[in-house]
Amino acid sequence: MDKARLLLILTTLAIAIGPIAGVLIIYQDNLVDAVVPSDLVEAISDPFASETPFEPPTLVDSQYDSTSRTATLTFNFTNPLNFDLTINSMFSDLECTIHKEPLGNSSLTESVSILAGANAFLTVSGTWTEEAISHFQTEHKDAKTTSIDLVGLKLSLKGINLELNDRVTIPDVPIAQG
């Protein structure tokens, strides 16, 4: 009786652990591929790289409120994927592209759902720090706009959290009214 019980326990363990061990051995050099398809890994590692289907969003409108030191930017984004995409949140620090000076932070104003192959508008709000205003007054004295880098961009897409290491440059961001 004990031998049959031991044989059943070993058989159960082999059935449960065998396939897992096989997958781990096959993917021992890259365990991420065992769980996440390699195409998805490439797309999320740098979504704006030329070999991926993503194109950077296009700036279509911008507004600046000097009282609250807030720039509101509206982007047109096309979902190149064959499935619907929901951007739940976005956050990044802001830096001057030219001087690498910290300027503040930005975030998506509301969640956006984009159908497969469709366009949608993303509204991002950025708040300048007091140091940013001083930087604009000294280094960009007569400029109405400047290029800003999104640094440490964090996205939440349908529960998947992404953090991009590369800077994303946004040209012509308003820094003054007019």
Which SSEs are present, and which pair or pack?
Blueprint: H1 2-26, H2 32-35, H3 38-45, E1 58-65, E2 70-78, E3 85-96, E4 102-108, E5 112-114, E6 119-128, H4 130-139, E7 145-157, E8 160-163, E9 168-174
Antiparallel strand pairs: 1-2, 2-6, 3-4, 3-5, 3-7, 4-6, 7-8, 7-9
Give a written overview of the molecule.
This protein has helices at residues 2-26, 32-35, 38-45, 130-139, and strands at residues 58-65, 70-78, 85-96, 102-108, 112-114, 119-128, 145-157, 160-163, 168-174. The longest helix has 25 residues, at 2-26. Strands 1, 2, 3, 4, 5, 6, 7, 8 and 9 form a 9-stranded antiparallel sheet that branches. The model has no long low-confidence stretch (mean pLDDT 82). It is elongated, with a radius of gyration of 24 Å. The chain has 178 residues and is of the alpha+beta class. It has 2 domains: 3-45, no CATH class; 58-174, Sandwich (Immunoglobulin-like).
Please outline what is shown here.
This protein is of the alpha+beta class and 178 residues long. Helices cover 26% and strands 41% of the residues. It has two domains: 3-45, no CATH class; 58-174, Immunoglobulins (Immunoglobulin-like), CATH 2.60.40.10.
